[in-house]
Task: inverse folding
């Protein structure tokens, strides 16, 4: 699903460096000049040992942090120089986030969590958007849990709500930080299969940070960070192992 | 572009609902503060207007009299020169305000003047049988005088009426002389005496006044005090008692009379009322400050508790402004709900006060009301205070770095 020629890459990083505690004795450079291109519709696993800079890179990709130097183009737009207000809007419309600890708002029901991005934009949720959120929750297998609070849902279910929320405004790119990190094997297989299905159905690009080589093996491309440098960046050969499949029953 | 803040409202209300205990506590705190402010305001304004009504009910708001007789020096002393002489001050005799008949309509036409009453007053003796009482004799036009001091409402027995040869006297004086309404007694002034029939007894609120007051028709007093056609003073009553001071100043500039406002005649009372107002102001200020600090501290805690949620919302694309407004709305909601409850509480307190606190006569001590305008103002101030209290926490929430907030 490569981008048609002429359209800019979804993500183009060149020589991205990131340091913390600049100017203090504890100054540390975490990323040492990364180059990375992501085309629209890719499904990428981002791996690496703890402290290799995966989360930092994901935060930079997600516009939550700024690189100390280097050039970052998101859909061809140089985002390094944009101010916070514009970055916020880009996050809202271009990116979706799925975090390790679900990070749903506990005071809102599953459906409300999924409609939050729309509420944020318009100040109200149109019936069309509500319908869309419903069908997404339906698609992730939570048709019966829409009005439940996150506290009433299992970890896997919460993560599926988070995936629905990340997709509700149909962003071209979803960033997932260890989305299966604290799920048991069955739930983690389900969530991963769901991500793959959403990718297949919608063509959304995914960048997934994971520690689990078994899941990484089912991504289309693997990027491995070691000590703030890209140590490996290669396409995965598909079909070696069957995609772990305990997908929720597809909607009728 | 202004957009309906549905997101901010929804999230703010959910946050408040989520931290139920905190929310209930702070709303109750705000309600208590608002109740105190509203109740104290109503109480003090009731107390003050009651005191004023009692004081001003029995006296004119502005009095106009003949200037005192003074000894005019033979020659004006040169500036800077000292005069080494001690002149005997002149004895003040009873004189009439010159041309008062022309002055009355002139004063009546001034804005804010509600009534003008001419009066002839002097000293005399009341005699009946063996009883002799010194009295203050006042000759008035009953209708005009009634407008100034509300005499008719102070009648305790008989019917207020002042035909020639009739008198209204104070209750204690009637007791001392042993007269009822309808009985006769004699009034004696420097050389003249007249027999008068009592038509009514009045209670002026002060026993000393009741013991000395004899009110007779204007003409009767003019005869008794040897001031034919004269009036020793003019009493003015105003619609707004607080302009008395400035009006007295204007009148002084215009007329060569001794003109005094009620404030000048009751300087101590005015000082007491002012002190009371300042004290209530301080109480209100302190209570409001406590309310603001309470709301602020609860919101500061809430920002810390909600760090993760704030981070997620920011990552999802909530702007700094939106996060800030989420907390400002919380402050406003706490202030508004708290002030609503507080006003209800104040109304209840006032009801209890008027119901159970009674004066010696069994009637409520004085009227206190929570004026709708006061209530609205208090509620508005409390809500604004809520927003002000939320500013600092809201700013710190908006400044949270989403990447850090999520990591926690």
Result:
């Amino acid at each position: 699903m490569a981008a048609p020629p002429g359209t800019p890459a979804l993500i183009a990083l060149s020589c991205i460096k990131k340091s913390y505690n600049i100017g203090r004795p504890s100054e540390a450079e975490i990323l040492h000049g990364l180059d990375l291109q992501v085309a629209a519709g890719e499904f990428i696993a981002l791996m690496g040992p703890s402290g290799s800079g995966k989360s930092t890179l994901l935060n930079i990709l997600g516009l939550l942090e700024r690189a100390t130097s280097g050039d970052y183009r998101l859909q061809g737009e140089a985002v390094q120089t944009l101010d916070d207000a514009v970055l916020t809007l880009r996050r809202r419309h271009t990116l979706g986030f799925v975090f390790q600890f679900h990070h749903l708002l506990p005071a809102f029901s599953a459906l409300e969590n999924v409609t939050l991005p729309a509420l944020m934009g318009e100040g109200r949720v149109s019936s069309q958007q509500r319908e869309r959120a419903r069908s997404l929750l339906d698609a992730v297998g939570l048709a019966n849990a829409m009005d439940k609070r996150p506290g009433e849902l299992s970890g896997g279910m919460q993560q599926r709500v988070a995936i629905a929320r990340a997709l509700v405004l149909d962003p071209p790119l979803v960033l997932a930080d260890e989305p299966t990190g604290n799920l048991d094997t069955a739930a983690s297989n389900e969530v991963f299969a769901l991500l793959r299905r959403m990718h297949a159905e919608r063509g959304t690009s995914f960048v997934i940070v994971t520690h689990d080589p078994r899941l990484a093996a089912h991504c289309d491309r693997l990027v491995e960070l070691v000590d703030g440098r890209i140590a490996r960046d290669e396409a995965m050969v598909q079909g070696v192992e069957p995609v772990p499949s305990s997908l929720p029953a597809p909607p009728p | 572009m202004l957009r309906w803040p549905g997101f901010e409202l929804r999230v703010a209300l959910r946050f408040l609902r989520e931290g139920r205990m905190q929310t209930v506590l702070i709303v109750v705190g705000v309600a208590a503060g608002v109740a105190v402010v509203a109740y104290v305001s109503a109480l003090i304004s009731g107390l003050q207007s009651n005191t004023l009504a009692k004081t001003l009910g029995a006296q004119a708001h502005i009095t106009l009299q003949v200037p005192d007789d003074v000894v005019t020096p033979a020659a004006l002393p040169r500036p800077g020169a000292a005069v080494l002489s001690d002149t005997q001050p002149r004895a003040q005799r009873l004189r009439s305000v010159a041309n008062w008949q022309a002055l009355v309509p002139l004063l009546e036409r001034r804005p804010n003047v509600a009534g003008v009453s001419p009066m002839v007053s002097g000293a005399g003796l009341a005699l009946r049988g063996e009883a002799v009482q010194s009295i203050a004799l006042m000759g008035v036009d009953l209708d005009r005088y009634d407008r100034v001091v509300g005499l008719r409402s102070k009648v305790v027995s008989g019917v207020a009426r002042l035909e020639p040869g009739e008198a209204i006297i104070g209750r204690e004086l009637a007791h001392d002389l042993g007269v009822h309404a309808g009985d006769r007694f004699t009034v004696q002034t420097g050389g003249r005496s007249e027999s008068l029939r009592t038509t009514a007894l009045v209670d002026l609120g002060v026993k000393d006044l009741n013991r000395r007051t004899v009110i007779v028709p204007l003409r009767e007093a003019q005869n008794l005090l040897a001031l034919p056609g004269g009036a020793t003073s003019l009493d003015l009553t105003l619609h707004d008692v607080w302009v008395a001071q400035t009006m007295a100043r204007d009148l002084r500039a215009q007329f060569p009379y001794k003109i005094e406002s009620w404030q000048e005649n009751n300087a101590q009372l005015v000082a007491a009322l002012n002190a009371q107002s300042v004290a209530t102001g301080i109480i209100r200020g302190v209570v409001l400050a406590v309310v603001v600090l309470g709301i602020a501290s609860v919101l500061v805690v809430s920002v810390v508790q909600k760090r993760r949620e704030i981070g997620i919302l920011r990552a999802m694309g909530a702007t700094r402004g939106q996060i800030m407004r989420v907390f400002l709305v919380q402050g406003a909601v706490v202030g508004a709900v708290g002030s609503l409850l507080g006003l209800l509480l104040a109304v209840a307190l006032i009801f209890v006060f008027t119901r159970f606190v009674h004066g010696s006569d069994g009637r409520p001590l004085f009227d206190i009301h929570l004026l709708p305008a006061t209530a609205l103002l208090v509620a508005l101030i409390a809500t604004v205070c809520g927003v002000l209290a939320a500013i600092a926490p809201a700013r710190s929430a908006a400044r949270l770095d989403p990447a850090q907030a999520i990591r926690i």
Remarks:
- Residues 6-55+270-407 of chain B form one domain.
- The mean pLDDT of chain B is 88.
- The longest strand of chain B covers residues 113-128.
